[in-house]
Amino acid sequence: xxxxxxxxxxxxxxxxxxxxxxxxxxxxxxxxxxxxxxxxxxxxxxxxxxxxxxxxxxxxxxxxxxxxxxxxxxxxxxxxxxxxxxxxxxxxxxxxxxxxxxxxxxxxxxxxxxxxxxxxxxxxxxxxxxxxxxxxxxxxxxxxxxxxxxxxxxxxxxxxxxxxxxxxxxxxxxxxxxxxxxxxxxxxxxxxxxxxxxxxxxxxxxxxxxxxxxxxxxxxxxxxxxxxxxxxxxxxxxxxxxxxxxxxxxxxxxxxxxxxxxxxxxxxxxxxxxxxxxxxxxxxxxxxxxxxxxxxxxxxxxxxxxxxxxxxxxxxxxx
Length: 319
Hints:
Shape: globular
Largest sheet: 8 strands, parallel
Radius of gyration: 18 Å
Structural class: alpha/beta
Strand order of the largest sheet: 1-9-8-6-5-4-3-2
Number of strands: 11
Helix content: 25-40%
Distance between the termini: 20 Å
């Protein structure tokens, strides 16, 4: 199946995943200028009116860059929308994205409602949905999404527990459309491995936390650089949904990472002013790929490195 136009002509088959707090205009624009998909959560724009400002400014900067560099491959902007009853901004934020004709919407937690899909499809946009299981994939496809993001074991933030081999293999049996794979992908070799498994794109998150453009405290950036896979804790305590977090931030918060209680799912909140935002500010999300990260260059330098590794891996395997 041919890929949607928004996902064609990238410099590398990579989608930058939306990172709470860390993904701001500087990071997104740098990702797009480097030729990959740059994304951010709509909820990062606070107050809500800032979302319109961000999109206006980012689109203007990318349009100017396109005029100055007509031969450059410029990736599209993607906006993540949390489809959950606690997100009281959803309708407003989707309306802003529709007005700006954002080419890619990434929906999370629940399959997007028909009216949301109709609005996005109405201007030619596409919706990619996060899933952690075959059952979630089936529900999202029944709803009418255009592609899936498979969040496998080891991914930063909210993540599933399935092996990427199992998850990609099962989903590919029922869906021939666009697939992105997330889970400890931090090198160009891993990007090629994702494609070899059957995915079209690598969905990379933690690598951008250790970049100059990430909107994070230096302590967070340094913790990512210092950490290994064993320093990632998988728990549902902080938001009610299982996710991966840096052990160092849990210890700093005064908690024992080896003896965390289970969360009460009835308290789940992913809205504009809920507990999840406070948890993510103090407890740092990251994936098991942190062991492959040991510096904090610019996004352009990271993409150049990923591209060189990707091409070297292709040459080595003669593909």
